[in-house]
Design a protein that fits this description.
Blueprint: H1 2-15, E1 25-26, H2 32-41, E2 53-54, E3 57-58, E4 61-62, E5 65-71, E6 76-89, E7 94-109, E8 113-119, H3 123-132, E9 136-140, E10 145-150
Parallel strand pairs: 1-2
Antiparallel strand pairs: 3-4, 5-6, 6-7, 7-8, 7-10, 9-10
Amino acid sequence: MRTVRMLPLCARSLRSSSFSERPLYARPNRGIDDWRWILQALNPDPDQASIPLLGRAYKGRSEKLLLRRDREHKGSILTVRIWDSGVRLLPGRQTLYFAQVSEEQLVQRFGLFSYWRSAPVSADDMRQTREALGKLEQKFEQGNLLLLRSYN
């Protein structure tokens, strides 16, 4: 029951900080979308709008939520990816989520193939993202990972 409320709360909180939930990426095993991504990656003149983000899996599971903030001035995208950790907290079997905050930088190889490369975020970007998620209980973990759950 909390799963239904938790993810919309994350999305609303981050949208209020200029993040958007745009499915501009291919998820694993999507067939036609994978081919579309390959063709877009071969664009000789890439920009943020032309190269979609690829989905990431954790223990074989796709993200439950992917939000992004365009940073055209830096030529990058700030992303927040949220997964169900598979852990349930007692009492009530509350879902524990984890989030990865990263800066995606557009990379072009050999003047032909383009893709997004993940890089760690600055302390300021992490602080702003955590403030946006302020309505959720958070625990900062190593690097760019956060454990998330809603308050009881």
